[in-house]
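Changelog-adjacent note: as of this version, every example in the card shows the full chain rather than a window. The one below runs 191 residues end to end.
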Amino acid sequence: MCTIRLLLMSLLLFGGVTVATAAQASAAWTPPHGFWSTPTVPGYGKIHYMPKDAYQPDPSQTYKIVFSLTRAGAKPDKVSPSLDHIARTVNLYVAAGVPLSQLKFVGVAYGAATPLALDNAHYYAKFGVDNPNLKLIKLLRKDGVDIAVCAQAVAEHDFKYAWVSPEVTLALSGLTTVTTLEHKGYTLMPL
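Full-length structure tokens:
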């Protein structure tokens, strides 16, 4: 029994970081009011706070992530879940103590997510509803997140480049943007 316990404790040690058991974590920590919250990007990317003894990002580090955005909302009036996951990532890092200035995030939309980049007039003309993604894109940009769209995907969808919202960066392609940023040290997060 001691051998199994020792083995389990060994497995929980990783690079000098110890992971607390659920009982230890709940005893040592009380969550803030409300189970879900959106501390940095209001109304988007819901998170649940965790105790500081859970795995956490290092607040002294800079995090460079390129998000591959490929999913549209379930319906045209719903926010892209890929875009909402960027908001969740921002909320998680900031809740863990990482300053916004140390988050270097770029989201690149293509495939089914391409329409999220349209300005409101052209989105409405295509889907009959306002673009639900524009408010979130604006909030993310305010927090330093660059949202880009693949120009090749814009063309494949028969959209005009002029239809892309001014809040969105037009990129040569998703392929070249992702690989260029990976070459510069960004971590790819496919969504």
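Structural remarks: The mean pLDDT is 86.
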